[in-house]
Amino acid sequence: MTRLADYFVVVGYDLDKRGGSEGQGQILQRFPEKDWEDNPFPQGIELFCQPSGWQLVPERKPASFFVAVLTDINSDRHYCACFTFWESVENPQLQKGEPSEADEDDSPDVLQPAQLYAPKSLVLVSRLDHTEVFRNCLSLIYTVHVDSLTVPMETVIGNLLTCIIPIAGGSQPGQDDREESSRTITLGAGDRQVIQTPIHDSLPVSGCSVAQLFRQLGIVNVLCLFCAALTEHKILFLSSSYQRLTDACRALLAIMFPLKYSFTYVPILPGKLLEVLSTPTPFIIGVNSYFRSETQELLDVIIADLDGGTVTVPECVHISLLPEPLLHHTQTAISMVLDPELEVADYAFPPPSVQPSTLKIQDKEIRAVFLWLFAQLFQGYRWCLHIIRIYPEPAIRFHKAAFLGQRALAEDDFLMKVLDGMAFAGFVSERGPPYRSIDLFDDLIANQVERIRQEMGNPQKVMKHIKELAEQLFKNENPYPAVSMHRVQRTSENTQPRLPQNSFPLLDEVSVQLFIDHATAKLKTAPPVVKAELKCMVPSGPPLADIVDRNGNVLANSARRLEVVRNCITYIFDNKMLEAKKLMPAVLRALKGRAARVCLTQELNLHVLQNRAVLDDQQFDYIVRMMNCTLQDCSHMDEHGIAAALLPLVTAFCRKLGGGITQFAYSCVQEHMVWTNMQFWEAMFYSDVQKHIRTLYLENDEEGDISNTEGEGGHKQLSALELASEQSRLWPTLSKEQQQERVQKEESTVFSQAIHYANRMSYLLLPLDTSKNRLLRNTGLGDVESISNSYVTNSIAGSMAESYDTESGFEDAEVSDVANSVVRFINRFVDKVCNESGVTNEHLKALHTMIPDIVQMHIETLDAVHRESKRLPPIQKPKLLRPALLPGEEFVMDGMRVHLIADGREETTGVMGVPPLLPAEGAIFLTSYRLIFKGTPTDPLVGEQVVTRSFPIASLTKESKISNINIPLDQLVQEGMQLRSCTFQLMNIAFDEEVASDLAEVFKKHINKLRFPQHVQGTFAFTVGQTANLVVEHKTKDKNQSIKTLSKNLVKTAKRTIGRQYVTRKKYSPPTWENRSSLQSEMDEDEISVSEEPDQSSLTLSSTIRSSDRQTMSNVVERACCRDYQRLGLGTLSSSLTRSKNEPFRISTVNRMYTVCRSYPGLLIVPQSIPDSTIQRILRCYRQNRFPVVCWRNPRTKAVLLRSAGLHAKGVVGFFKSPNAPSAGPSQADSSSLEQEKYLQAIISSMPSYSEASGRNTLSSFTSTHMSASDSSDKLRQPKIGALMKQVMGTKDDVPGTFSRGELGQRARVISLSQPRVSVKARNPPRGKWGSIRGSGQQSTYNPDVGNRLAGKESPQANGGPTETYFLRQQRAYLYIIGDKSQLKGGKQDSFQQWEVVPIEVFDLRQLKNSFKKLMKACVPSSSNTDQNMTFHRCLEDSDWMNLLHRVLQVSVLVVELLDNGSSVMVSLEDGWDVTTQVVSLVQLLSDPYYRTIDGFRLLVEKEWLSFGHRFSHRGAQTLANQSSGFTPVFLQFLDCVHQIHLQFPMEFEFSQYYLKFLAYHYVSNRFRTFLLDSDYERIELGVLYEEKGERRNPQVCKSVWEYIDRLNKKTPIFYNYMFSPEEEEVLKPYSYISNLKVWDYYTEETLSEGPSFDWELVRGRQEEPVDEASDRQETTAPKSQRRIVWPCYDSLIKVVPDAITKLLQDVQNLENELGHPTEKWKDTWDKTKTTQRAESRLESRHSFSSSLLMSSNLSHQRRSQGMYLQESGVGSSINLALDCEVSATSTPAAGRPSTSTLYSQFQSTESENRSFEGILYKRGALLKPWRPRWFVLDKTKHQLRYYDARQDKECKGVIDLAEVESVFPGTPTMGAPKNIDEKAFFDLKTTKRVYNICAQDSTNAQLWMDSIQSCLSDA
Questions:
Q1: Strand 891-901 relative to strand 1088-1092: parallel, antiparallel, unpaired?
Q2: Is 68 helix (H, G, I), strand (E, B) or coil?
Q3: SS (H, E, C) 139-153
Q4: Contact 1780/1808 with Cβ under 8 angstroms?
Q5: Residue 1397 — φ and ψ, nearest 5°?
Q6: Has residue 354 got a pLDDT over 80?
Q7: Do residues 772 and 785 lie in contact, with contact meaning Cβ atoms separated by under 8 Å?
Q8: What is the DSSP letter of 1182?
Q9: What is the DSSP secondary structure assignment for residue 1623, as one 8-state letter?
Q10: Tens-digit pLDDT profile for residues 1148-1173
């Protein structure tokens, strides 16, 4: 029961204190005079009566009423009901007649009215909010005053102040309750009114205010204000009506129920107190619109204008709104209440009437919606309450993180703010206690949650529920609507207001006081009215877990995943580690789901016995990994309680280290934010305290199984809250002692827990290595280095890191720093929890003294653990596998544990359907030769496989850092590195945490040092066998050295070298005659230079050079160039100079000292007529002095191919100068220009076609003479050249595949070839062959002509015919110069010169470099591509690589055409060592079949690339000096072109595609010296050039790649192309359009099983292993399968799936081994098979395919699909054609044996390549040996005469090198010669070594042999 009104106050205008425009109010009277003890009189009432200020007005205003609210210091609210009316007063100025201060400002003219009205207020102050009752009471008092009723005013006021009413009514409608809840009062003035008190005091009373507020502002605005109030923003209401302000504020508070607003709440703020609005705290305030202008500058206040219906939110304020879908549901529900017609507005037949409820009911319905909303927001909140004290009064804490986690709203801003807010704290303390009376909200939470959830989607059901709730709310406010009638006398103001004639009287205080005293005394004597509070246990409602799991992600919590987690843990504890390892990745993936994490904690709990579980090292590691993974995804709040569940486990699981030390799991799981979060520790602490207190009170119960904590199985057992409720109920019944005892027990429970937690916190906050303070820094996270103990407790890097720390000398300071920060953290925690759980101060002090000791003690323990843990071997990681090394290869840095991360190649990552081989864990090794990664995939399904990725360190092109490393989360890694190699390898590696960061730096430095050595001698090729010193040791002289070490065939050629050369040491000065003999011993010195004796230069070599010097010279001569020149007959090395004078060309020794041109070889082919002095002069015109030299001659047309550099700028103009141009004088440029012309003229003169034309300068006879002399097919080829020329130069009619892509429109119109009008039918099929179109959709530009040419017709298009004006010449030129377009600008062509310039656009090296970079990124992307547009083919196109290939091939094909047509060509581009080399090499490869053999290709590369000075070191950036130039793959581009030709003509090459890849790999690998340095000069200077022939110290180490290939070729057919079946003198003309080119698989293939297959020793070593492994594996599995899975990126396909022939050869070898036979070389086996197969195929029917199919397994390839013609051998089958193509196209006699082609195989090795002529001859043996018949073979291609025992024999008995043959002449029979043979059948062959006596079958045969040999000699 309480008083209806505490004070009655009369407040009037203070006339005395009137100053300025503002008056003041004063309290005229107040009753009672003394303050009530329980409720002091509130201050400042006079301000609130007139909030806008006290003013006198000239006109009387109507009486007004409103309720203001005052809040006192105790946060109690006082409701001040103000009834204001106006009384007339005399104008005080007029009375006094003297001006007051205020009047001084006024003008005297203003007329002051005589009558003014002052306000007077009657105020009731009450703690209850009964607005209508107050309005009635004050109106009654006013009526008594106005109507002058007989009732004394004192009586009315006395009755009012003594009126006692109940605060809230009962719940049962009994008679007594009715009296209590509806109290009838009378004030004694004939009035009677019923006061209905609400049934529940806790529910707010709102009248109609809520509905009113929504009508004023609208749904969205009110919801916005609602969220702003809950999230503690400042809210200001504006209105001109005071009562509306009060109602709006009351409404806002009403909808916040069950939360109570606990900040500043002033519904009506007086104008004088407006500065309150700038307070920093949140508020809800109402202000009259009169003061609107003052509110404008408030920046952080939300202003709601009730009159205008707007809400203004400032920019800087962000209001968090309700989480969806709740916000939407709430809006919908409110809209259905306020506007029910909305739903049916669109109906065709709307229901008759859908009226909204009355305002009062609508108000309750809206409140019901908010109640319904809060029931959803707070559902299950009681399950997250921790009760930490029951006695003396309950202390309850809310576990916010758990609540948010279970609601899955941890990220929700709104709910987070609400739960952190003051209102919610009040909610917990008010509604937390488990034993209290309950109201509507408690019932809703306990019983209606399920209903709300089910009805959510159904608006009708929702409305039904809301109406039910509204009814209860209405009933609460109006328990008995029937009784609520009241009769109050009101003044009849509404009709005609009665005006008070006199002012409100002064009342008699005494009589009022008597009333009050009397009532008080009566109350004292009356028996106390005890309202029995109905307390009960508050029900908790359904637990949250069920609710969330139903909505949760089914996949994440699938039972299968939980099963995996359980199985894995079982395996770990059963010590089945291999099984556990396989499951581990699946477990780590599953642990991303909450259910799996919970499952993990539950499973681990089962393995803890008496708080301890001792594991072995591997178990410990797995458990720690799982714990880390589990914690990794937990937020710092730990909303799912995972960290909480793991906390007891990390102190339970441990392992024994040495010295009796135990390491617990907590030392390995410290790296997580959650441990630094104070709220987590508090929640954990409260949860544990709750468990212990529950245990405390359960001890006496028999069913005391206390393992179950809050909530779980709550139906069977008492939860902590239920227990607390029971205890609260019992509390009053206990004695004082019992109460005291329980309080102490609880206190000591909390205290002991505090000590326990201080320990726990020190466990998790002190790092294992306390020298590193990582956890409690500003970020709360640790340093990277200190992760060394996260789950790799035993690491090498950790120990290294520590040693660095100890050196720093700051150890103690560091440790104390860690200790202090941990102590401070724990102290803060202890203070907070102890205060909240009511621990006494003595206990708190004791704790504070204990904490530093606890921390110090723990630090000491940790030091021992740290020391021991470093000694542990790192067993938990995969063993580091050591790679095999090459002979001479050494480790520079031993293996560092790294993770190889997947890059953009899809095969390895499992995208293609195989298990992912990457990421893999292993080690990276740096050796003197390679970078090697070797490890195992992290995916355990392929965990047994070994992954190897390596590349030569010399091929590294890029090394960069990687920041975002994506590898499985169980691995902690530091920085990452990306290493890219030009062998198309990429390593993305991330260093493991155990690798110290400085080691990674050392690694980088070593890489750079090895990649760019100071000098080329630092490369692996030089350092390989000799780690101690680089210098080749001085060798002792050996008598037989020449026989032992130098090539037998070519030693003797030295005698005929032109000029005189010596080997001198270091200096170039010629040695004296005396020193000559000693020079021989210095021959093998490291630094050798070739020098010349100038005065002897005219002598021939054989007469002057000594034997010792010949040996060295033979080296020079033996270089590739010379061997090739001999073969081509370009310069003979015979001593008879007579014949060589007739030769058009000679070998010049002008460069033998490399003084003329450093980058050219020592011996050069120049025209016979040009003396060396001329050469010295023309050098200057060419860049780098690379003047034109001959490098190849067409054996048929005798046209020559020349190469040179481009012209110098100064030389260009002179070169094209017109002869009669005026000249200032004979300048140097002129003279050299003339020399140059002379030089070119000499080249032209050397051509047979020119000399046949009698050497005339005019070209008139050229065409006819040459046409008749040459093959008639040439006539048909000319249109082809015209078209080609136009394509290459890019004239305007050439659109597809142009050479220079960008400038189609503005092509230079340069000379091309026209077509002579000839129409002779072709007699021979055309020479050369075109590659097939390969079925490409686009038609090749070559296409139209091919058919015509083959048919022998003239092409219909006269490409470049005479009609076109810009073709200047009607005949073909003798010499074409392919030059760079940019170099040739401005030159004027002379139409009388015999040469033409073909200007082409060459790509520069920058273009090539960029193209290659893009190609690498396309083929080996560094990361998987998310951009759909950047597919592989798009990236390939962007790289422009194919276009560059197309351009090189196009020019090469043009040159081939020109040479084939009898014109010589000079390629003169850039510096003559890049594009020139490419073009010249390709031309020779296409034109000359010899270069398509293994030996020939070697010779081609040695000659054109090595001898002619392609800058391998510079382009490959092999040394530090070349680092800046970057890698430019000129040679690789050439090999790619060869690969393209090989694809189009697979039967023309003796070598396989693997051979090309092998070269592509090793030309950058620096394993061999072959491709080092930039020229022969540099190689000689370093002593590399000829040392290969010297005796080697290490027979295993090959210094030359060629030697290595030869060795390998003898052992294995890997380099051999089984389809090799060349046609005689075949000229190839491949298609070069991009549509015909294919991406080389060298760029894309990878073999992860063994790394690149190009270091054969490494591959061979592993060859046998896979077979054994496979068999072992088959034994373990039940069914034995013969199948083997082959992975595209893992297995080496050559080995795993060998081609049929290789397989058969292997099988033969294996069988021979088994039978114990001596194994035959593969080549011999192959050749035998070919021979027998061919013989068989001849015996069979001509059209039968049969066995020939076997051997030609793939031969009917696309080659020969165009222009295919059968040989004259009459073989009908095109399949046999491949095998029978040896039949010579020239009809050479074969010594009467027409079927010789059956006798040997075309597929034989280099010994039996081309047999130009063969037969039986008798040969006399050496001294004292008889004559023997031998099968002789003359090989023109190889320039050899070989002899065999018999014609079927494969083993060659001997070779006579034709280079050594001096003469062939008729001989005489000697002793023992064959009988009955004509004397003329004998002839002798004289070589430099000896004379061979030979006898033929008859004289004609002998003559044939002699002629054949002689023609060979003259060709040379």
A1: unpaired
A2: strand
A3: HHHHHHHHCCCCCCH
A4: no
A5: -105, 130
A6: no
A7: yes
A8: B
A9: P
A10: 888 888 889 999 998 899 998 888 88
Model pLDDT for residues 956-993, shown as the tens digit of each residue:
998 888 876 665 544 556 678 999 999 999 999 988 87
**Among candidates 171, 126, 124, 169, which has minimal Cα distance to 9?**
124
User: Which helix H or strand E contains 571, and what residues bound it?
Assistant: helix 559-573
pLDDT band at 225 (very low <50, low <70, confident <90, very high): very high
| DSSP state string for 1650-1709 | TS-TTSHHHHHHTTTHHHHHHHHHHHHSSS--------TTTS-HHHHS--HHHHHHHHHH
Nearest to 676 by CA among 821, 786, 569, 834: 821
Whose tokens are 């003690």? That residue is 857
Question: How would you class 1260 by CB atoms within 10 Å of its CB: exposed for 0-12, middle for 13-18, buried for 19 or more?
Answer: exposed
Q: Is the dihedral of CA 467, 470, 472, 474 positive or negative?
A: negative
pLDDT of residue 600: 85
Record the tokens describing residue 816, joined without a space. 């104390």
Distance CA 1156, CA 1174 (A): 12
For the chain, what is the radius of gyration of the CA atoms?
54
> 29 by DSSP, 3-state: which?
strand
Non-local CB neighbours of 32 within 8 Å, separated by 6+ positions:
7, 161, 512, 513, 516
896: helix, strand or coil: strand
Residue 114's DSSP bridge partners are none
CA distance 17 to 769: 77
DSSP-assigned beta bridge partners for residue 1202: 1190, 1466
Parallel, antiparallel, or unpaired: how do β-strands 1088-1092 and 1061-1065 relate? antiparallel
Question: Across the strands, what pairs with 26?
Answer: 12
Residue 1569 · residue 1561 · CB < 8 Å: no
Contacts (Cβ under 8 Å, ≥6 apart) of 920:
899, 900, 933, 935, 936, 937, 938, 947
Other C-beta atoms closer than 10 Å to the C-beta of 303 total 19
Joined together, the tokens standing for residue 1773 give 């089958």
Find the distance separating the first CA and the last CA of the chain, reported in whole Å: 136
Average pLDDT over residues 1823-1851: 83
Query: CA 1245, 1251, 1255, 1256 torsion: positive or negative?
Result: negative
CB 601 within 8 A of CB 645: yes
Helix (H) or strand (E) holding 663: strand 662-664
Q: Are strands 1464-1468 and 1200-1204 parallel, antiparallel or unpaired?
A: parallel
Q: Which long-range contacts (CB under 8 A, 24 or more apart) does 1481-1485 make?
A: 1481/1505, 1481/1534, 1482/1448, 1482/1449, 1482/1452, 1482/1534, 1482/1537, 1482/1538, 1482/1541, 1483/1192, 1483/1201, 1483/1452, 1483/1455, 1483/1456, 1483/1459, 1484/1191, 1484/1192, 1484/1201, 1485/1538, 1485/1541, 1485/1628
Per residue in 1058-1101, pLDDT (tens digit) is: 333 333 333 333 333 433 333 333 333 333 333 333 333 333 33
Taking the C-alpha atoms of residue 1368 and residue 1311, their distance in angstroms, rounded to an integer, is 6
Alpha carbon 931 to chain centroid distance?
Answer: 22
**β 613-615/1164-1167 pair status:** unpaired
Which residue has better confidence, 377 or 1551? 1551
CB-based contacts of 1382: which residues, under 8 Å, 6+ apart?
Answer: 1401
Q: CA 1882, CA 1899: separation in Å to the nearest integer? A: 8
CA–CA distances in Å: residue 89 to residues 13, 100, 102, 112, 1173: 10, 17, 18, 13, 138
Reported pTM: 0.52
Give 3-state DSSP helix, strand, coil % of the chain, rounded to 5.
45, 15, 40
**What does the DSSP 8-state code read for residue 1600?**
-
List, in order, residues 6 or more apart from 1455 with CB less than 8 Å away: 1201, 1378, 1465, 1467, 1479, 1483
**Cα gap 5→165, rounded to integer Å:** 10
pLDDT > 90: percent of the chain: 17
